[in-house]
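Minutes, project check-in
Item: structure for the 363-residue chain
Input as provided by the requester:
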Amino acid sequence: MTIDINVVLAGLSIVLFVGLIGFFAFVIRHQNVVEPDQKPVEGVELIRQHYGAGETIEQPTPYYVAPIPSSPDPLEIAGNLDKKIVLGGFMLFAVFALVGAYLFTLLVVRADASSETWRDKVAAQHQQDAAVTRGRNLYANFCFDCHGKDGKGDVGVGLPLNKPDFKYDTIKADPAKLAVTESLLDLTIHRGRPKPPPGISMPAWGTADGGSLNDEQISQLMAFIEHGTDADWGDIVTIRRELALSEVPNPPKPVVTSTDPVERGHQLTLTYCTTCHSFTTGTTSPVPQAPNLGTYGSAGPLNTENKAAKAAAGSSDQWLIDWESHAPKVKPGIIMPIFAQAEGGQLTPENITDIVAYLKSLK
C-alpha cells in the first residue's frame, strides 16, 4: 500500500500540535505545584503560629514562632523553567516546519507534473473519471446515431471508436503511437472527416470549425474513447432512454415499395436522411449543422443558396432536386453527401423526386 506524504505530514502536525497544547498545560500545572500561591496569614491562623496546643491568649509565648516551611531553591526552579521553554520552543518550531514542508510539497513538488512520486494520483483519477462520464454523455447525445450504441460502427455510417487501437492501456507503452492516436482523434472530432460518395462525411464538431462542441467537451469525448470501460459503453442506451431519445440507432432500412410517392419518400428519408436530420418538430438534429426538417413543407428553404435557387426556379422543384442530388455543387464545402447516382451517389432520379415530395408534405 502506498503511503501518501500528505497524510504523514498532516498526522505529524496534528500530533505535535496536540502535544504542544498538552505541554503548556503541564507547565502551568507544574508551576502551580512547585510555587503555590502564598495566602496572607491572619486571624486564627496568626494566633496558632504563636500559641501551642492548649495554651490561651493569657499565657503568651512571645518568643515562640511556628516553623516556616523551607522555600524551593530558586536556581532549581529557574533551571526547570529553562528546559521547559527550550522544549516548548522546539515543539513549536517542529509544527511550523511540518506545515512548511506540507506547503512546499503541495505548491512546489506537486506542481511538477513529471514527478510520479508526488503526484496526487487520487485527484488525477477522480478528474479522469469525471471526464469519462461527461464524454459518455456527449457520445450518447451526438455520436450514437453514426457510431452505434457500443461504438463498434455497426450502424454502417461512422467508423468504430470502441477498439483496442484507441485504448490508452493498449498504446500507453508506445509514447509515439499514443501521441499520433490522440492527435488523430482530436483533429477528426474538431474538423470532421469528408468521405467520397456514396459515403457520408463526418461533420466538424469543434466550435472553431462551425460545430457545437468546445475544446473541453472534445477532450471529454477523447477521455471516454480512450478510458471508457465496457460498463461505460453499456450505459449509452440507458442514458438515451433517460433523455427520451431513441434507444438504438436507426440502421439503414430497406425501401418499401409503394404507389404513393410521399410514402416512398418517407421511407427513403428514414434510410438516408435521419442520420443527420431530425424530422420531429422542436428537436435538435443529430448533426448540429443539419437543420430540423419537420416543417419543411411550410417553412421552405433554410439557407441563402436554396432561397436564391427557388426564387430563380419560380414554381419548379428543380432547385430542390439539384440540392438533393449534389448539394456540394450548390454550396461548396457543405458536409451533406452527394446522393444522385449520376454523380456517384446511391439514389435514382425517381428516389430524389420522391424525397422532394415527402419534404413538401411536411407542414
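Outcome recorded: The chain has three domains: 5-109, 121-242, 261-361.
No further action items on this chain.
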